[in-house]
Amino acid sequence: MRNIIHICFLVLTFCSYAQVNQLDSLGRKQGIWTKNWKGTNQIQYRGEFIGGVPVGQFRYYYPSGEVRSIIEHVNQRAAFVTFYFKNKEVMSEGFYLDQLRDSLWLNYDRNGLTLSAENFKKGKLNGKRVVFYLRNQIERGELKILSETFYKDSIKDGPFYSFFSSEKLKEQGQYKLDVKDGIWKSYSSDGYLSSLSRYKKGKLHGWSEFYDAEGNLTGRVLYQNGERLNEKRAKSVLESLRRAGLDPND
């Protein structure tokens, strides 16, 4: 009797393993599939396929055995994904569409603090990317915005804002094709405009101006295509521009 039970156990065990990593008559993956890291017995991933399509939950592992990511398949195109550090803290989480990042993604450090929130479309940054202060989270459990940057196809393009931890505006400007462009303003922690600079294709160009708490101009420096002009050179350039009827800020 004991021998019969033992044989039945071996048959059942063999059948359960036989169902792993199977292809159907059309060559499509069916049922549970697993893969080990090359040259080891450590599993790399485990999940289920139906007709060659991944379904349900897939788990991926580091070579050392910790969970690296969990993918929850919604349908053939969409899935929710969570990536992990080796210490089991979440690294990032978001949505995949057609195997590319899409919509909102959140990123964290290995201590569980929120680093940033990003928007994706077809695998590229599109829309607003928000970076958060870490010190406020550590000291007071507050989620405060450090900066906001807008993207088009993973290129900085649009308004930029940075903030003090008090939530007061620190700097604002505009990116165009990944470089600073136009007027950029900086503010003091007390809220007054401290400087105004002009950029052209990523280089300082025109007058950069500096102000005190009462809004009085305290100084200014002239730039041309990124070069800071000394007093003599500035005087010569301004005279040439005046004769040509051109604005030094253009």
Plain-language structure description:
Helix content is 15%, strand content 53%. The chain has helices at residues 2-18, 135-140, 231-244; strands spanning 22-23, 29-36, 43-50, 53-61, 67-73, 78-84, 90-97, 100-108, 114-121, 124-125, 127-132, 145-152, 155-163, 169-176, 179-180, 182-187, 193-200, 203-204, 206-211, 217-224, 227-228. Residues 4-17 have low confidence and may be disordered. It is mostly beta strands.
Give the SSE layout.
Blueprint: H1 2-18, E1 22-23, E2 29-36, E3 43-50, E4 53-61, E5 67-73, E6 78-84, E7 90-97, E8 100-108, E9 114-121, E10 124-125, E11 127-132, H2 135-140, E12 145-152, E13 155-163, E14 169-176, E15 179-180, E16 182-187, E17 193-200, E18 203-204, E19 206-211, E20 217-224, E21 227-228, H3 231-244
Antiparallel strand pairs: 1-2, 2-3, 3-4, 4-5, 5-6, 6-7, 7-8, 8-9, 9-10, 9-11, 11-12, 12-13, 13-14, 14-15, 14-16, 16-17, 17-18, 17-19, 19-20, 20-21
Short summary of the structure?
This protein is mostly beta strands. Helices cover 15% and strands 53% of the residues.
Give the total of beta strands. Answer: 21
Content-based structural category: mainly beta
The end-to-end span amounts to 96 Å
**In percent, how helical is the residue content?**
10-25%
Mean model confidence by pLDDT: 93
The rounded Rg comes to 29 Å
Residue share in β-strands: over 45%
Shape: elongated
Specify the biggest β-sheet.
21 strands, antiparallel
Q: Given the structure, what is the number of helices?
A: 3
Please write the string of helix (H) and strand (E) elements. HEEEEEEEEEEEHEEEEEEEEEEH
Poorly predicted segments: 4-17
